[in-house]
Amino acid sequence: MPAENLVPLTPPLQVTPLEPTLGAEIGGIDLGQPLGTQQRDEIHALLLRHKVLFFRDQHLSSEQQVAFARQFGELYVHPTTRREDERLPAAHLILASEAREAYGDARKGRWHTDTSWLLKPTYGAVLRAVSLPRSGGDTVWADSGLVYRGLPEDVKQRIDRAYVTHDFRHALDPIDYAYPVIAHPLVRTHPQTGEDALFINFSMSPQILGWSLEASRELVALLLKAFSNPEYQVRFKWSEGAVAFWDNRSTLHYPVYNYGDFPRVMERVLIADDDIPHRVRRAEARA
Questions:
Q1: Domain residue extents for the chain
Q2: Which one, 79, 91, 141, 287, has least CB within 10 Å?
Q3: Which tens digits make up the pLDDT trace of 131-189?
C-alpha cells in the first residue's frame, strides 16, 4: 500500500490511576481535536472504570470544550446557570461567589451530584478551569459505589428499597421554572456497569420518603459521614488548562471553598442521559 494511503494509528493514551477505584489522569491526547471512534470509546471505557478522568495542559476554548463533550452524547442546557456566550447555551459558567451563595455557607461546599433533581439526571460532566486562585479551590470526588459497599449490613438492609428526595426549588423558584420535587432510589444501579451505588444530593435537603423526620436526618447524617471518609475519595488540584470528566451516576463531588474572596471561575458542560435512576434486583438481573 502506498505510504500516502496509510491511516495513522491513534497514539495510545497514558493512563495513571490515582486511587484503587477512583480517578485517573489521562495523557497523550489533545482534547481540542476531534476524537476518532476508537479513542472516544476508549475514553468512555476509562470513565466507566475510573469514574472521573483528569486531563492537564489542555487550554480549551468554550467551543472546544462543548465539542469534546458532545462526542459522548446530547448536551443538557441547565436553566439556572450563567452563560458567557449565548451561542453556546450548554457551556455553564460557575462563579465562586454565586456557588457559595447557593450553598448558604461561604466556608464550605456540599457533597452533590449534578442535576439529580431531574427525572433523568445528566450522566456526565466536563469541567475546565477558567480562573484559578494561586492555591486552594480543589475538588474532591467520592466513589458512591464504594461508600455503599462499606456501609454496615443492617444499614444496607434498611435502605434497600428507600427513596430520597432531590429538592432544587430554592434555585428554580426565583426564575419561575416549574419542576416537581423528585424522589429517586437511594441505592441506584448503574445502567452500564451494573454497580449499586448511593444516589443522594446533600445540597438538596434530602429526606427519606415514609420515614420520620428524625430517622431521616439520622440516616442522612450517617451517609454524609461515610462520604467524608478519605478512603473513598480522590482530590484534584486544579491547574491552568486542566479538565475533569466524571460520571454523575457513580460519584459525588465536593468543591473546596478555601480561597477567600478570589473570583474563581470554572466552566461546565453537562451530558444528558435517558436513564431514570432505578434499582435492579439481582433476581431481576438473572431473569
A1: 15-286
A2: 287
A3: 999 999 999 999 999 999 999 999 999 999 999 999 999 999 999 999 999 999 999 99
- Within 10 angstroms of residue 277's Cβ, the number of other Cβ atoms is 24
pLDDT in tens, 104-138: 555 578 999 999 999 999 999 999 999 999 999 99
Place of cell 448536551: 75
Band of residue 287 on the pLDDT scale cut at 50, 70, 90? very low
Contact 103, 170 (CB under 8 A): no
Whether the Cβ atoms of residue 237 and residue 80 lie closer than 8 Å to each other: no
- Residue 8's SS3 state is coil
**More confidently predicted of 99 and 170:** 170
Summarize the chain as % helix, strand, coil (round to 5). Answer: 25, 25, 50
Between CA 20 and CA 40 the distance in angstroms is: 23
Please say if the pLDDT value at position 8 is more than 70: no
- Which three three-digit cell numbers place residue 266? 470554572
Burial 203-233 (b: 16+ CB within 10 A, else e): bbebbbeebeeeebeebbeebeebbeeeebb
Structural element, H or E, at residue 189: strand 187-189
CATH superfamily of 15-286: Clavaminate synthase-like (3.60.130.10)
Residues 258/137, Cβ–Cβ less than 8 Å: yes
DSSP assignments along 15-64, one per residue: EEE-SSSS-EEEES--TTSPPPHHHHHHHHHHHHHHSEEEE-S----HHH
